[in-house]
């Protein structure tokens, strides 16, 4: 594998120690990796992405903070704004994996062996590797679909959402089902889990 001279990586997590641990692992994995930023929120990550040529963002230990509607909306915006940016989720558990399919380019589990870490990180940072084509269906939720999901998350009933937005109940139901399909969820139960995170 060929590598560029220097690879710029950014880490995002509210947990400082989780970011620090992943930074140490990355530095041990490849000596040409430059962890250019380690941030705890979206605003700081946006500033970094505007000012530096970051090639990979690793979302560290983000099952709780980044699995709901706002997280998916943010990741969708990132993918549209920076199409060459690769996103990797790093977590202690793999339970949220079906929900993130189509949104990220790689997934690392913290209980993997060091050898697996090295292999995955090296593949992500190889200059000849391209991020897989992200399926458009996962990223193309309309504004009204996002709005319906947000209102469902707030506990509003479908009839209330329909009346408030001058839509029919059937239209709201159809938009909700379209969002379920686009997010790669299997059913309404998966949607409830998604909305409560």
TrEMBL record:
Pfam families: GerE (PF00196)
Gene3D superfamilies, per the entry: 3.40.50.2300
Residues in HTH luxR-type domain copies: 138-195
This protein's UniProt keywords: DNA-binding
Protein's UniProt keywords contain DNA-binding: yes
TM region positions: none
SMART domains reported for this sequence: HTH_LUXR
Record-given protein name: Response regulator transcription factor
Native organism: Cedecea colo
Phylogenetic lineage: Bacteria, Pseudomonadati, Pseudomonadota, Gammaproteobacteria, Enterobacterales
């Amino acid at each position: 594998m060929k590598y560029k001279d220097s690879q710029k990586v950014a880490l995002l997590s509210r947990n400082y120690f989780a970011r620090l641990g992943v930074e140490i692992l990355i530095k041990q994995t490849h000596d040409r990796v430059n962890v250019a930023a380690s941030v705890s929120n979206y605003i700081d990550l946006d500033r970094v992405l505007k000012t530096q040529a970051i090639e990979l963002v690793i979302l560290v230990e983000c099952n709780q903070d980044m699995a709901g509607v706002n997280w998916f909306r943010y990741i969708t915006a990132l993918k549209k704004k920076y199409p060459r940016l690769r996103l990797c989720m790093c977590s202690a558990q793999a339970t949220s994996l079906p929900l993130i399919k189509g949104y990220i380019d790689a997934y690392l589990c913290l209980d993997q062996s060091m050898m697996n870490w090295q292999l995955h990180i090296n593949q992500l940072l190889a200059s000849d590797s391209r991020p897989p084509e992200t399926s458009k269906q996962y990223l193309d939720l309309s504004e009204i679909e996002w709005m319906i999901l947000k209102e469902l998350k707030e506990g509003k009933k479908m009839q209330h959402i329909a009346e408030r937005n001058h839509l029919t109940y059937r239209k709201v139901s159809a938009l909700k089902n379209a969002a379920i399909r686009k997010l790669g969820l299997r059913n309404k139960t998966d949607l409830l889990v998604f909305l409560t995170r």
